[in-house]
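>> received
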Amino acid sequence: MEKVKIRKTHFVLVLITVMIFISLFIPYKQALVFIQVETNRVSAFLPISIGETFKIKYTHSIHLSDVIESYEVVNQDVIRQFELEYENFGIGMPSEVTAGETFEIKDGKYLIKNMKRDFPSFILRIGQVRANHTLIYNKNSYPLSEFIEPGTRVKVQIKKLNVIQQLKGVGILAD
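>> returned
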């Protein structure tokens, strides 16, 4: 009778250990992730939900003025750029809109609104000199160079992360 109790206890402990171990590898937390292109490693992540928005602000390398790209998380596989704000026309900046988009001038800035440019992901090189790429989320600014080494190319996408990936990457915003 005593041996049966010990075996039962041992079985339960092994089962719990296996379940905990497996749960470490099951993706469950949806996040905006920044994945190093060369290593495919999550450098940083921001927990985010479908329907939420974020912006990436940077200083244009030629015009030396701010550019703000606004995005929405449409679903697990789609990030939609819905607005672009910039101060100067010229190299690297659009001079016209596509069907359905609107162009406005407000407070000396050019705005392209109603954009519906969908991406499963996009590549971003974190500026080394003056770009100062900054993630803006819920009216808070997070300079990406504080989380990702300047000069690094990252793939930006929506992805579910498991506990191990979260521990390896840098959480931009603690939940």
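>> The chain has a mean pLDDT of 87.
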